[in-house]
Amino acid sequence: MQNNSNNDAQSCLLRVANLTKKFGEFVANDNLTLNVEAGKVHALLGENGAGKSTLVKMMYGALQPTSGVIEWQGEQVVVASPAHARDLGIGMVFQHFSLFEALTVVENISLALPPQLRQGDLSQRIEDLSKDYGLPLNPSALVADLSVGERQRIEIVRCLLQQPKLLIMDEPTAVLTPQEAQALFATLRRLVDDGCAVLYISHRLEEVKQICHDATILRHGKLVSQVDPQVETAATLAQLMVGASVHQVSRQSNTQLDTVLLELKNLNQAAKTPFGVDLVDVNLVVKAGEILAIAGVAGNGQGELFGVISGENKQAAGASVVLMEEACNGLDINQRRALGAAFVPEERIGHGAVEHLSLTDNILLSRHACNDTESPLNRGIMGIDRAQLAALNRTIGTDYDVRKGREDAIAGSLSGGNLQKFVVGRELNRKPKLLVINQPTWGVDAGAAALIRQAVIDLSRQGSAILVISQDLDEIFELADSIAVISRGQLSKSYAATELSREQIGLMMAGSHEQSTAVAGV
Amino acid sequence: MQLLLERRSAALGWMNLMSPVLAIGLTVLMGGLIFLAMGQPPLTALYLYFIDPLTSWWSVEEVLVKASPLILIGVGLAVCFKGNVWNIGAEGQLTAGALMGAMIPVLFGDWQSPLALVAMLILGALGGALFGCIPAWLKTRFGVNEILTSLMLVYIAQLLLDWMVRGPWNDPNGYNFPKSAAFEGWHLLPTWGDGRMHFGLVIALFTALILYWMMRNNLKGFEVKVVGSAPRAGAFAGFSQTKMIWFCFALSGGLAGLAGLIEVAGPVGQLQPHISPNYGFTAIIVAFLGRLNPLGVIFSGLLLAISYIGGEGVQIELGISDKTTQVFQGMLLFFILMCDTLILYRIRWLGAPKNSTLGEPS
Prior knowledge:
With 522 residues, chain A is an alpha/beta fold. Chain A has two domains: 5-242, P-loop containing nucleotide triphosphate hydrolases (Rossmann fold), CATH 3.40.50.300; 260-353 and 433-519, P-loop containing nucleotide triphosphate hydrolases (Rossmann fold, 3-Layer(aba) Sandwich), CATH 3.40.50.300. Chain A has helices spanning 52-59, 82-88, 105-112, 115-118, 122-132, 148-160, 178-193, 205-211, 234-242, 302-310, 333-338, 359-367, 386-399, 416-428, 446-461, 473-479, 502-509, 516-519, and strands spanning 12-23, 26-37, 41-45, 67-72, 75-77, 90-93, 166-170, 197-202, 214-219, 222-227, 260-269, 279-287, 291-295, 320-323, 326-327, 341-344, 434-438, 465-470, 482-487, 490-491, 495-496. In chain A, the strands form four sheets. In chain A, strands 13, 16, 17, 18, 19, 20 and 21 form a seven-stranded mixed β-sheet that branches. Chain A has a six-stranded mixed β-sheet with strand order 6-7-8-3-9-10, with helices on both faces. In chain A, strands 2-1-4-5 form a four-stranded antiparallel β-sheet, covered by helices on one side. In chain A, α3 (105-112) crosses α6, α12 crosses α14 (416-428) and α14 (416-428) packs parallel to α15 (446-461). The longest helix of chain A is centred in the middle third of the chain and has 16 residues, at 178-193. Chain A is globular. With 362 residues, chain B is mainly alpha-helical. Chain B has helices at residues 15-37, 42-51, 57-82, 90-101, 103-107, 114-142, 146-166, 200-217, 219-229, 231-236, 241-264, 279-289, 294-318, 324-344, and strands at 2-7, 191-192, 197-198, 345-350.
């Protein structure tokens, strides 16, 4: 179980020793020491907020450590900036890509390269490299037309052109289909065979077991353990990450009622922005007591679909949205809430909640026009009912275990998981007849995720209809009674969860159900 | 060498209130240095500028008279700026309100009743609001930047006023001076004290209190805050950004128009080409110095009013141009924005990145 890198100083490429990073009083990284060896994939595991990003940002020169040293090939270095890191031979692929959608692949790569590397036939080099490493890319393709997996390849190729000795990847599979992830793993294996080191950040334990040679586990900024992922099981890794055994979500079989609470018919909707996704002939039905999960890689029309159902986006003519057996065409989000619907958007900050407002203000945000509280929260000329909001905030805090500095904290001061529990709890507290929830546990720690999933299941077993949009297949199998898949704005028909395997979903995520006409443009 | 503004990790909450204090301190310091450079005794000049206006009842009254329009416009702009709506044209809305309200004395000079004054106040607010709705319409209909349109409309309003007092509304008995006939009786606001203090101060304070309550405890204020700072969360709450923009312009324009009417029905007493020493622009500083909080605006309005009186004071006593007022107001805005920025961000100096050898291109 002990990692063996200390014995072999020769192959140690990057070593950090006693590295500490403080933000004011908050210690993000506490005295971390670890070695990354050439020719190996080293996993950096930890929950959100464990300090993984802070650590790699220091390695990449984007942050400077408060104390401690970084050694590169045996020599102590100060990584002054990302440009300096690239000069040293450290490349990084971020979770969120920085690509210009209106430019081609080769133009994007050229923009990011230092002038010395821009010379010669860049297109040819890109093509050679991408073939060599199994990363098929067309250099003259427009980025806007490419899938997320292809965009990630651009970022990887961009790094590889600079011949890095260490490649840092931040949750690379979060945006990929299972098939795309397998292709990426093949590339990574090829890279380490060539002697490159890979630092792989993830919280997906199965894939860490599949491709990583070493694993360093962080919790609350401290190094918990260094293990051999081949020896550990996913369960023991999870336990090390969370610090306690993770609560399992339980569900009884649903008592299927036959009332249809959400129905979309013939929804064809052009995107609002040039790089948005058009929704093409979307039809779906969710019944009372049912959880329908929509799987799909991010950016395939999930946000657009959510907006049409919530009423935030005006729906196109010819389509019909029926909530609670009432035609909702033209109703705004508050009128839909008044019918008994509740919505949880993907982004907590800036969409589901306002960062600098208090929690009570954030309750008011989605509930000021619901009229399902004892008396209206908005009393017009009499002002806002602060006492009732404070009581609601206490109830939501207790029922959904929202941990906060003080009772009516500022939303932005809560951790991601606690804010998500609050945002979900705010809606569940209404006992809605229909819940539409986009990425319910995105970027949330395992404990909070289990609580949220259990609450969603409990609500459905009380006879509510639930539409879950998620890109996390584990979550989908944990929650769903039925599953549909969205890809490039087209929704498959829905299948019973028991009928589908991960592989079938993966194929559908890659577009196997799409009508050929829609793909013609790509 | 490279300069970088880096967001501070820990927000300094109490510094938000210290920022105006710091800005005022820096303004006084710089003002002293400027007086010194002009060969004037800095302490005497600063005393004349900031303290002397408060030493006689006459000048305190004068400060309150100047503070009234500043507070009235400032609270409207504070709400507007909270909503991320940048109405820079309050001076034009002030002029439009004065023109519209002056319809009663100019066209219906014989109507002498308290109702006439009420009608003037309403028309004044309406004129400002309607004029403010022009940039609102251009922005919501065509996406035109409201900073440009509201600013450019100032000159249109001022030239319209200029033309009106020289042409159609010129006083027939006024020897062709560019003025309307002087307002009389119920066309002027009730006054007290030495006859300069007028009812406008009551209106301004009352408005500030109402808007303070609205921003804290009314859904409309909540809507402005949410849509202004997080538009998508605003849509999630069911608030319309378009309606919020119209509301902000109508409110701030209406209050500026009311301030304009109060000026012509108060201290000025008639229409003339210049009815305001740039109250509409100074109110922008008032709003920021007051932390966009209607109660804070009362205090910053008083301070900026002192800067007008103090400017006149140093002109009389030391013979320095009254443009000092604008210098002081400019410095105040500069320092308040600087302090706000440095509270949220720190400056980092970066050396030139080291050049080390790169791998050969493949």
